[in-house]
Design brief:
Layout (H helix, E strand, L loop, with lengths): L17 H14 L12 H4 L2 H6 L3 H9 L3 H5 L12 H5 L6 H14 L6 H13 L8 E2 L5 E2 L15 H18 L1
Antiparallel strand pairs: 1-2
Length: 182
Amino acid sequence: MTEDLSITDLFSMSKPVKTDTRSLEKQLRILGIGSPDLCFQCSKCTSGCEAMKLLELEPHSVMASVKSGFVQEMVNSDVLWSCIGCYKCKERCPQNVSPVEIMYVLKNWYVASGKPIPGDYQMMLQNMMTKGFIQENKEILDDEGISKDRGALCLPDIGGPQDMNKFSLIISRIAVEKLESD
């Protein structure tokens, strides 16, 4: 009698899938991104993570799951979408592994599989395509609680794309090229 001694995810009861791990490794190599196998779980990435402070994202846990072969579980996890893309995890990693870039690849896999982009990201994408920015300029409150815009703070106006149609076309082309190359 042979026993299956592989790891099992106790939440989903799934087993690691090595073909997913190999596909991810291949894509990371093409993109010049370090392998998650280099991660030795020092947690320096997590200690600097801005999303960890608010949303409890643990980049080193994402790396551990990917290393263990639970790539599809990470692709389908909401935790990926809490990453704000600050790149502190990459800067802090002594092994030059980039959890943020690996999470971007996994997000791309999610979208390429035909699943809907989460609502907030969908809104940001629509704003980018129609306005050139992910959000409108916002006023802030100063120490006295007075609302101020960029001009009142002596900040320059933010210039958007000069030709919005051309900008949207370029962004669309890049997205299509990326999906076709994957």
